[in-house]
């Protein structure tokens, strides 16, 4: 089946009789922000949004209630003149719902086509295979007699001239049959004399425009021989334009480069060309026809050239400064890493990268969870780089690094005069700077409560209000937030707003700590050593087996960041071109190397069971049902095993991550 380019498909569909509880499970399973809803006849009736489910929970609605009351209807026809620009239409493959197509591009394209047809300098009409006129852009088609019309219809020629008896006019008619099997035939007609007149008028108009816009015009063929020279340019050069036709451009203009542009096809814009009498500004562009260079066009300015030259100097200086600042801004606000740059082959890391890739395909908010040093910012870069917003800016904000009294003006911006010391003209905030891109809010758990309220408005209304302003500015941004704190516990302690947590926690991604993926340590060591030695200009011969073993046995509470710190220290300590040994590693790695105690088989099994339960619960963000599913056991069995762990022996589980 040939699908429309903009067809939005879905992982699954809902029935209007589906319960809120069942819908919530499907949203979590497929990680999507909205799902289509069908009626008993399997016809599309609207969409159910994930945020709507959050509202039902807050309102205390029974999870067994059907979802039909919360379905948001969408357009279902193929053309609705009064439809809003944001509407979508349902598409079916036979009788089966296939997905949604945005309506705005279809309406826009239809209007654009109608405008183009109405402005076309020729008559267009379409007939079916029987000759019945189905469409015309200019009233009735030419009044052919039956004999003339028959000639048009039966002719095998792609173009023919027809003399219309009734109007006593001659038309040039082009005919084209539809490539589809619909029997449609397209006719294009123009009066012969009108076509000639239009061509002459167009040539005269172009000549007038060029004479007005530029002091001189010249064209050459691909060999550099002059084919046209304007009157003004001829007077400036002191030659007769007509006599210069056919002569090589180097004989007509000193220091010209017209023949070079005609040969290379590379344009030269606003070039200062030296003459005996002074300077002129020349622009030379190739003339390309059917993909081949057929010559070159030159446009020159030679009047008031002194002012133009001074202006060019100023423009060049401004462009140089602008490129410098633009380069700095882009370097600071562009994602530098992709998912392929994230090192790790451990199953937990592979699953995390897959989840990040899935999150990047949509436009929902992403919440990155994990201990300090696990690489949350790296994942934020990768999600942006793999998304449809990759060409837009990637703006980074550390909520803990900005003083609370400055955080509001940094995020939202301010208008001139809003406070003492406010910059003249005001300043854009980070949200506006991320327009059409992604904003990464690191350490979101440190955001003050009063700022959480304003941030929630940005997520809900898609607009920001600058400090001191009474107007709101719409923004088109995607939010990726990160934290190493337990937001659910913060919500319980009234340190973090519940509604903001729901808005952010649409696509949660938990990044595993390094101690849970030790098989990746040596891969990380290899990559980090290469980067560190190149940066320091100090080569080493890798690590000894004893040093490798120490790295593998250490628990790495600081995760990848701590590993890189240890390796940088080791490179500094080791002699050039020698192997890193345990002597070059910190004492904490040596002290942490103790013999493992001998346990009974029963103790070993119990310990493994505890670690499995704790690891699954941590990965499932505290959701015991999901943790049981990950372990492949029933929910009842999971609860029984968890209950049997005595309070003193039960491993500490923090939802998603550990407290800072």
UniProtKB/TrEMBL annotation:
Residues 342-572 form the Sigma-54 factor interaction domain. Residues 202-247 form the PAS domain. Keywords: ATP-binding, CBS domain, Nucleotide-binding, Transcription, Transcription regulation. InterPro entries: AAA+_ATPase, AAA_lid_NorR, CBS_dom, CBS_dom_sf, Homeodomain-like_sf, HTH_Fis, P-loop_NTPase, PAS. The keyword Repeat does not apply. Gene3D superfamilies: 1.10.8.60, 3.90.1280.20, Homeodomain-like, P-loop containing nucleotide triphosphate hydrolases, PAS domain. Pfam families: AAA_lid_14, CBS, HTH_8, Sigma54_activat. SMART domains: AAA, PAS. Transmembrane segments: none annotated. One of its GO terms (molecular function) is ATP binding. SUPFAM superfamilies: CBS-domain pair, Homeodomain-like, P-loop containing nucleoside triphosphate hydrolases, PYP-like sensor domain (PAS domain). This is PAS domain S-box-containing protein. It comes from Sinobaca qinghaiensis.
